[in-house]
Amino acid sequence: METKKVKRFVYEGLGFPIALVNVSVVKKRGVWTPAVNYSKLQKEVLLALVHKTVALTGNEIHFIRTHFEMTLESFGKNFGVTHVAVLTWEKMNNKPAKINPATELCIRLFILDKLHTSNQIFRKVFREFDFTGIAKSSSLKTDKPITLYKSPTRHPANSEDRDISDSELRPIVRKRIAENHDILKRLSKK
């Protein structure tokens, strides 16, 4: 198996682009794929979506719903909408889903609740949610990938390699997250 380290790799396996920075990749069946722990990657992407400063896209909504193994109907019930509304959001693909900003806040808080984050982070997201910015961005095309630094690695293929430890794992999704001392502190404790 051929491996190498690349400065930037855009991964679209979750349905939307995620830029992984300084990641090891492995060539399998002629295709380069990131050598990451996909469970950790999904959790970090969910946290990145919570702190995203623009509206969620249809593919991101689909990822959230399927990650938590929910039907269209059960996902919609959590936010007071029908399964048809959820399907309409998801059909927006990589464009903003045009969700009411209050509902989008509920979706983001739902993610935090499901990931069992601390009350402090939950309250901070609630207080800092930019209703106006989200509403304005829902009319924009946002195809810019989410960027994660020092991506989580999967278990090594040979004993000389090693996983990046959880204390070394510090995904920095946006400058805003990098400046948020509480979130960095929480990630270093894992």
Question: What's the structural blueprint in terms of helices and strands?
Answer:
Elements: E1 2-11, E2 18-28, E3 31-34, H1 38-51, H2 58-67, H3 72-78, H4 83-90, H5 101-114, H6 119-128, H7 131-137, E4 146-149, H8 175-179, H9 181-189
Q: Your description of this structure?
A:
Strands 1, 2, 3 and 4 form a 4-stranded mixed beta sheet that branches. This protein is α+β, with helices and mostly antiparallel strands and 190 residues long. A hairpin with a 2-residue loop joins strand 2 and strand 3 (31-34). The relative contact order is 0.18. The chain has one domain (2-189). It has helices spanning 38-51, 58-67, 72-78, 83-90, 101-114, 119-128, 131-137, 175-179, 181-189, and strands at 2-11, 18-28, 31-34, 146-149. Residues 151-188 have low confidence and may be disordered.
List keywords for this structure.
alpha+beta, four-stranded mixed sheet
